[in-house]
Amino acid sequence: MKTSTTQVRRHGEEKVDFRLGNVWNLVKATLREIFDESAYERFLLRTNAARSVASYRDYMRERDAAMAKKPRCC
Q: What DSSP letter does each residue of 4-71 carry, written as one string?
């Protein structure tokens, strides 16, 4: 059975769209890690807290305390 050029072209476009979607998801996940959004989400899940100014303040206090405990080199 022969496939038409249109079918082949459409299938190829789907592969490209899928790959671009994967790349976009990777970029978004990377940016969320860089800007601490993912860490804040994990904090909310761990503490069963709702997203609010108070919970973000608690997150920042916990994060700052953890950073202060790390030894600095040089």
A: PHHHHHHHHHHHHHHHHHHHHHHHHHHHHHHTTHHHHHHHHHHHTPPSSHHHHHHHHHHHHHHHHHSP
